[in-house]
Amino acid sequence: MRQLQAQWNDPAEDGQVGVLVIGYLLISLLVVTVVLAVSAVYIEHKKLLSAADGAALAAADNYSIPVGTGGAGATTPLPVLQDSGVEESTAGYLAATGADARFEQLTIDPATGAPDGRTARVVLTAVARPPIGNFLVPAGIPITVQADARAELTR
């Protein structure tokens, strides 16, 4: 019994548990910091995607129907979108919703337009800043989203 009691009271091993506790605490704080930063960037990406979806829908509603297109066999007119109209609708939607105040360095990408004449493609870029660790990425993390909306005529 005295030998067992002597092992528990060994002065050479005093304080070893404190080092382990501090190490595990630092690792836990690092994991929490990384999870918070990734979550913040993900949420900012989803917010920007929501703004791009709304802008694409607004741009898809800004179509024109060419008069006199089609021949004797054409029965349904098709809506036509222009690149400049998509860009203008996107800028108007973002200004109307106050997106410039919600997103840092918000820009409309040059890829925004109507690639096939019937689909409005909106590409937005912005910068996300994680709440903890701004000193690691002082310029922020750039995020880019793309949303498409198709103009359709139905009865």
Which SSEs are present, and which pair or pack?
Layout: H1 2-8, H2 16-60, H3 83-97, H4 99-102, E1 104-108, E2 119-128, E3 141-150
Antiparallel strand pairs: 1-2, 2-3
Helix pairs in contact: 2-3
Walkthrough of the structure:
- With 155 residues, the protein is of the alpha+beta class.
- Strands 1-2-3 form a 3-stranded antiparallel β-sheet.
- It has one domain (15-66, 74-150).
- It starts with a helix and ends in a 5-residue tail after the last strand.
- α2 packs across α3 (83-97).
- The longest helix is centred in the first third of the chain and has 45 residues, at 16-60.
- It contains 4 helices and 3 strands; from the N terminus they run ααααβββ.
- The chain is rod-shaped.
- The chain has helices spanning 2-8, 16-60, 83-97, 99-102, and strands at 104-108, 119-128, 141-150.
- Outline type: rod-shaped
* Helix and strand composition category: alpha+beta
Number of strands: 3
Q: How many domain units?
A: 1
Note the gap between the termini. Answer: 93 Å
Q: What proportion of the residues is helical, as a percent range?
A: 40-55%
Name the poorly predicted regions: none
Q: Which strand order does the major sheet show?
A: 1-2-3
Given the structure, what is the number of helices? 4
- Run of helices and strands: HHHHEEE
Mean pLDDT level: 86
What is the alpha-carbon Rg in Å?
28 Å
The major pleated sheet works out as:
3 strands, antiparallel
